[in-house]
Amino acid sequence: MYTPTFDYYRPKTLDEAIALLGKNKGAKVLAGGHSLLPAMKLRVAQPAALVDIGRIKGLSAIKAGKKEVKIGALTTHAAVAASAELAKACPILCETAAMLGDTQVRNRGTMGGSLAHADPAADYPTVMIALEATMTAMGKKGERDISAGKFFKDLLTTALKADEILTTITVPAYRNFPNMGGCYLKHRHPASSYAVVGVAAMVGLVDGKVGRVSLAVGGATVNPVRCSAAESALVGSAPTDDAIAAAAAKVAEAIANPMSDLYATADYRIRLATVMAKRALMTAAQRAM
Fold first, then answer.
1. Which of 40, 73, 163, 237 is deepest in the core (most CB within 10 A)?
2. Rounded to an integer, what distance in angstroms lies between the CA atom of residue 171 and that of residue 64?
């Protein structure tokens, strides 16, 4: 199926791209195109104009510091998966990127494009929630930071304004701190490889006990959710099988209005999230030792 008619712009600078978004009502940003173009072919999305930012310089770098890592929004999934800097500083992102789609998708799709699209079955949003990442957006009023917890608003909806472009994602360099481990697991849909349910877990140990834990579930609801009750249940305990199982049993408390479809019912997604949370927490705890 062909897309509807649209105007196409290819700005050379970020300022030019932002200006084009302001001048063209209903315009959409085009990065890798793996989410937007299929939606346009299906007539689910019918933007009046596309602003292609794919050739703007400076938006695809990975810079690792002592406490944080900054990732340009145009960084491809393949670059994230292969980054030696990320493998040392925040390996959960390399692990996640390697699971995305196939070789073609990983070589063309971008981290920023995936986050801005906010698909319920996408992988990055869940990990960003668990990492407590920060999204930096640039618009006509300047630059602003948005926490991951406030970035995802609804189904395919983010906090980005119509004239804003996601430029940078900042995550903690947790491997530079002792006794921190992370894990991302997902149950793939057999047709699309998207996450029916995805779980991201971060565990920090202090003197053999859990001093910090972050657990997020995606795919079960329109936006990823933090499992606060499960986190609280595990903090202060030794990461034993029983303690982790008891914490994972509380995951269902975080999943309100679970999605349901022909492949996975709401109850199945909740059960899947519980089982996967236990596995992710156990793996993260083992990696923290």
1. 73
2. 9
